[in-house]
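User: quick one, fold this
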Amino acid sequence: MNELLEVAEVAKRLKCNRNKVYDLIKSGQLLGLKLGRMKVSTIELDDFLVRNAGKDLTDPFNVKNL
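Assistant:
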């Protein structure tokens, strides 16, 4: 089932902080949806994890392969 997650929920699932999630959205690595507050669909989050398996996203503007 598809849900919309707030940034804090996405950060919790990715085990990172909220600023990293905003950086991922700003860099285009993760697609967000602004409805009052920024949100990410669970489908997009799952796709993001598949697309970026084996990559270093420490700097989302300069992604490297591991």
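User: anything notable?
Assistant: Helices lie at 7-14, 18-27, 42-51.
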